[in-house]
Structures are given as C-alpha cells and as structure tokens.
Amino acid sequence: MPAQEPPADPAPRPPRTGGRTRSQEARSAVLAAAVELLEEIGYQAVTIERIAARAGVAKSTIYRWWKSKAALVLDAYRETVEQRMPDPDTGSTAEDLTVFVAALHSVTERPLRARALRGLMAEAQLDPDFAEPFGAWVQSRRAVVLRVLARGVDRGELPRATDLEALTDQLFGLFWYRLLVGHLPLDPARAPQLVAQLLNSAH
Amino acid sequence: MPAQEPPADPAPRPPRTGGRTRSQEARSAVLAAAVELLEEIGYQAVTIERIAARAGVAKSTIYRWWKSKAALVLDAYRETVEQRMPDPDTGSTAEDLTVFVAALHSVTERPLRARALRGLMAEAQLDPDFAEPFGAWVQSRRAVVLRVLARGVDRGELPRATDLEALTDQLFGLFWYRLLVGHLPLDPARAPQLVAQLLNSAH
Amino acid sequence: MPAQEPPADPAPRPPRTGGRTRSQEARSAVLAAAVELLEEIGYQAVTIERIAARAGVAKSTIYRWWKSKAALVLDAYRETVEQRMPDPDTGSTAEDLTVFVAALHSVTERPLRARALRGLMAEAQLDPDFAEPFGAWVQSRRAVVLRVLARGVDRGELPRATDLEALTDQLFGLFWYRLLVGHLPLDPARAPQLVAQLLNSAH
Amino acid sequence: MPAQEPPADPAPRPPRTGGRTRSQEARSAVLAAAVELLEEIGYQAVTIERIAARAGVAKSTIYRWWKSKAALVLDAYRETVEQRMPDPDTGSTAEDLTVFVAALHSVTERPLRARALRGLMAEAQLDPDFAEPFGAWVQSRRAVVLRVLARGVDRGELPRATDLEALTDQLFGLFWYRLLVGHLPLDPARAPQLVAQLLNSAH
DNA sequence: CTTTAACCGAGACGGTACGTCTGGTCTTAAT
DNA sequence: ATTAAGACCAGACGTACCGTCTCGGTTAAAG
C-alpha cells in the first residue's frame, strides 16, 4: 500500500485563494476515533455520530471530507491499521507468494481487524458509492500478486499462457471466502501447501 | 438444495389449544412481496416496513416469523428465486464440476439475483444472528461439490491425499470474490478451463 | 377557552379497526415537559429535542401529533398555563370589560407567561403553518369581548352603529403592542380608565 | 427616519492608526442582497449565509458590521424600503393624525414590506439583542405621533389631562395587532373614522 | 514611501437542532 | 391465538445555519 493521499481531492483543488486551511488535528482525531471504535464495538456498531463524539469533532466536518462511514473506515484502515503488506521479490515465485499469503492469512489472528475487513466488504455490497474506492483498494492488493506472477512468467517458472488474473483471484478468493463464511480457519503456516497447489494448477 | 421448511412451524404444531391458525396467505404474500421488491429496488433498499406494506401485512407478523430482513430474503431466495442447483453424477469428476460451475457462474446473467446474493453475504457479515442460517445454506452448497470430489477420489481420478475442502473453497472462493468485487466477469462458457485448472492443482 | 380537542385530527379519523391506542401518558408528559422548559429557559430556547428528552418520549412521537414547536406550546399553554380567562356578564358593559382587561393585563405579572405569549406571536409571524391555529386561538379570545360589546349594544349602552370589531382590536391592540414592544407597563389597576376611554370613543 | 449611520460605532472608534477603510461596496451589496432576498423568499427564509452568497461577500464581513440578521434587515429596511413616513403639521390634530394613519396602514398594500415588518417584530421577541435597536426605531415612530398630540393639547384641541402615551399606543396597537394577526384588513381610506374614534376617546 | 493595522474573500471549524427514517416492541380491536 | 393496525421508544441519518476562526491578500492612513 503506497503512501495515502488525504481522503478527498488530492491534486485537483482549483483556485484556493483563501480560506482556513484544513485542520490536520481534526483529520487525525477522526481517523484515530474510527479505529478505536472499530476495535471496541465492531464495524457495524460504529456510526458517524459516535466517531464525531469520540473525536471531539463536528459531524459536519466528517461529512465534509468523507462520503460515508465506509470511506472513512477504509481510510483509517489504510492509514493506521493495515500493517504494510509485503511486496516480496526473492527471485522465486513460490517463495514470493508464500510470504504474501502468510501475511494475508495472518489477519485472522487479529479478530477485530478481520471484522473490519469483513465490514468493509459488506459495505461495498450495500453502498454503490463505496464500491468504487473499495474496488480501487482491492486492485492495489491484486496488483502486488500480479507482479509476482508476471515475474514468474518472465523467469519461465510459469507457462506463458497462464491466466494470471484467474490465479490471482484464486489466491484472494480462497482468503475472502473463508474470511467471510468462517467455516474453516486460515492458517498462515499452511501457506506453502496452498501456494504449491496454486502453482500446480498453472502448468 | 433440498426443499426448505418454512422458517418456523408448518406441520409440527402440536399444542393446538385454540386460536386463529397461521395464515398461509400472509406467509406467501410476504415472500412474494420480498421477491418483488428485491427485483424492483434491490436488496439494500428493501426494508421490513416496505415488505409489510406491499404484502398488506403487519410488521409484527413478519417479526413473529422471521428474525430479520436477511432471514426472510434467504427464505424467499430459496423458495422462489433459486433455480434448482444441479447435483450432477455423470461418472466424470471434470464433467460434474463443469456442470456445477457453469450453473453457479450463470447467476451473473441475472443481475438482480446476483445483487440479492451479494446482499445476503453482506448481511451475514453485519448481523451475527443471520450468519448462522446463511452459513448453513452455504454448507449445503459446498456439500454438493464435496460429494462430487469424494466420488472422484473413490474412482481414483483424484489423489487420496487431496485436500477436498481446499479445492471446494477454491471453486466457491473464485466465484464469490468476483461476484463481490466485480472486477472481472464470470463466464459460464469458461467453466471447462476453470475446472481443468482446478483439477490440475490436485495433480 | 373551551375544552380542547387532542391536537390533531379530532373527528375525521376514518376506519380505526385496530392498532395501539394513543398513550395519554406520553401526551401529558410532552405537554408537561413543554411547560416546564418554557418556564425554565424561555420559549425560544425550547426545542423539540429537549422536550422529547425531558418527557422521556421519542421525537417521532412528538412529530406524530404536533406540527411544530409552536403548535405544541400553544396546546400546552391552553391546557396547563392559561388561567381560565373570565367571560363576565355583570349587566354592565364597563364592568365586564374592566374585568376582562384586568385579567388580560395581569399576564405581565407573570414574566415567563408573558414571554411565552410573545414567543407564540413571533412564531406565528415566521411559520405560516402555525399562523392558522394561533389565529383561531386569537379569535376565541376576541369572541369573548365581542359578545360583551354586543350585549352592550342590545342594552343601549353603545350606539347601534359602533364598529365592535374595531373596538375589540383597540382593546387587544394596546395590550399586544405594549407586551411586544415593552416600552410601557400594563397595569391591571388602570383597567377602569382604559375601559372608560375605550367606551368614550364609541359614542 | 433620518439618514442612518453605519450600523455600529460611528464616532467612538478612537485608536485609528491605519488600516484599510471600510468597503462601501461591500456594505451596499449586503444591504441590496438583503432587500432582494427579503422580497424573493420572505424574512424568515433569509439567512446570513444566503445574504453573503448573494452579495458576493464573506460571512465574516457581515458579522463584523451587524450583530444579527434582524439588525441587518432593520438597517436595510430603513435605508431602502421605508418610504419617508410623514411628519405632518397642518394645524389640525385630526388631519395630522389622518395623514399619518393613512400612511401607516398603506403598508399593507405592499405585502412583502408588511412581511418584513412582521418578521422584525417577531425577531425582537426572540432575540433580546435585537429588541434594543428595534425598540429605538419604534420609539422614533411613536415620537412623531406624540408630537402631533402634544400640539393638539397646546392648541386646546385635546384636554390637558389626556394620556398621550395611551392614545399613541392605541393608534399603533390597532395597526400592529391587525398586521400581526391578519384577521381584518387595514384600509388607509378608513383612516378618518379611526382618527375620529381615537380623538373621541379623549373627549 | 514604507510600515502596519484593519479590511476583504474564502472557507474550514465546532456546534445545535432539524425533520426523516428504520428498527424492533407493545397494545388494541377484530377474527 | 393470531391477525392488521398502528403507536411507542430509540437513535442514526444527512442537512442547514449558526457564529468563530484562520488564511492569504489588499488598501490606505500614519509615520
């Protein structure tokens, strides 16, 4: 995950001739409050009202900068919660993937973080406006895996004809399916087997 | 998917000491209204209030028989929307799976049905009470695939050591991931390739 | 002031086949809270939010039965604050009017009541929806004076040609003008002089 | 109404050592916008925010020079709306009053002006800070009538003992009462009768 | 002819209340 | 006993203005 822009309007701010500058304190307080509440009461019990109260910030300030609770939480998640996901390049596709999958599956060791992730995915289903930024975030994660696989193809570890998109979606699909349905655990220790299975399917 | 009981008590109503009997009309009207609304305005815009109004039924009647909107919609989905999913047994694992995957992916050709599915998955994340019946429904679908794979092992088409659970979750994981994120299509015509890839991964 | 209907829809409630009946406790609690707040913090600081909180009642319950703060306060004023205004019939027009005017002007001895009256008049200027019920209440007060004057005409104490409407508005006009502008006191003791002056103007 | 100073502090600003002078354009734009909005959407829908937007002026500029919407509107009213009220001195008390009353009542022929007047009176009830300048303006109008009456006493047209204040308040009271309650019209043509009735009451 | 204080626009800030909405519960009258 | 009707409490929603507070920039009188 690269360094994140401020939530709204990064560059295309047109005239800017005057006006009070945005309060970084308010922004930080909101994001911090969102994370705190997320960990205390869970995604779905979080409300904008509660975030505002906790952050000591007016509701209107939140609405000025974020479209929805989900957008805010996604921001907060990226900025303060998400451990920097690995972007490995060890020379071995299997090893690269194993590192990534292990990191991915280790989220389940942090139940509240897992809950937040599930909440974000849910919100993306219910709120079309949020589906967009959420999709962008998902793509940024897929891109990491796609790069690993592309290098594998270049090195000849994978056949030229491999459907890298499908392979990537297999990787994330299993993760999300188990995360969302919760019928079976996601053990980081089993990452090597999973990766082997995945690479098998490509030749 | 076997025929589903009505959510509560259809037949096993022993202690009939008197009183008005349950109105089957009310039940049908509610389910019908739920389906109609689902197709007209989408899962998330459906509310119990609206269903009650459309069905000409009191809110309390709905709450008496269903725990939540999601439980109701799941019922309605099973009863009136879901085309009977295939439970193939052709003698070939690949063919069995292809039939199933093609049927699965063809949901995307019915956008409103897809939307309902996504809504149900979302709801299961947000409402722990709904996660339970939803999970049971998911298991009933997984069971079909697991049976196909078990027969494949019996016939020697798959190695004894194959992790059938993982294979099953690969199959559903890809489906759900693309359904939920929407970044790539799910084409029933590509079911054969997908199944080949899947079976490859097991050697 | 005659006994007052419940604030909304007295008769034209059509079918009424079932449903929870209106909670008299809620209604009383709301009116009581309104009066209390009126006396504690003044008309304009009273808000529906505060009334709801004080009464232990949901906001929606208030909005169900009253259109606005002003409508509610008018109701509360009529029911629990307004001392029954006299409707005198002593046989003497001068005496009748004196009784009425003294009662009217004595409101200024209760500053919070006076404040409420001023608030109601103000609201009637700003909220056209409230102007209607407020106007009706004003008319009910004017009617008392008009009856007194009509009897005076019948008895021959006032000329047939007297403009009773104008006389009535003189009486109330002076009261409201001083109440609203506050430049001069309204002394009940001076009621006789005022009435004399008023009756003088008619011959 | 004499020409009006800039709303606040004309003289008593001592330590002017430098600084940009007040923009007359901004002041005019604000007053003009206030009047326009007053006529377009009515007193109560006018907000400082809207005035600022319409005038192309910052909110803070308005708050720098006026305490409240009401203060601003009173200013605007005096400066651009109020037709110069007559200050007659014909030698006859009855005629002087008739001129004045006719002018007063003719406001009702300009509904938006009437609406503004009512809004100002309302605001004076709700905002104690505004009650002060509003009261001053009311006094300036009363003073005109008081002078007319005082001349009448000097000429012997009115008894020495006449309560001029009460007579004045009768005159304005009737006007405001009908303006505010709106139950009966105010016809300038009936000014002579009204004045006769008024003078009668003093003997 | 340079300070410098007061002005200007823009617009973000913390607040408050609004009136609406949905959820889930409870009560009543009718069947 | 169960229904339809519908009132009830609870509380979040997103909006509108409020009045205050930076900002960066302008303007004219005082030195």
UniProtKB/TrEMBL annotation, chains A, B, C, D:
PROSITE patterns: HTH_TETR_2
Residue ranges occupied by any HTH tetR-type domain in the UniProt entry: 24-84
Record GO terms (molecular function): DNA-binding transcription factor activity; transcription cis-regulatory region binding
Keywords in alphabetical order: DNA-binding, Transcription, Transcription regulation
Residues within the DNA-binding region(s): 47-66
Keyword DNA-binding: yes
UniProt superkingdom: Bacteria
Region feature (Disordered): 1-25
Biased composition (Pro residues): 1-15
Keyword Transcription part of the UniProt annotation: yes
Positions of transmembrane segments: none
Protein name in the entry: AcrR family transcriptional regulator
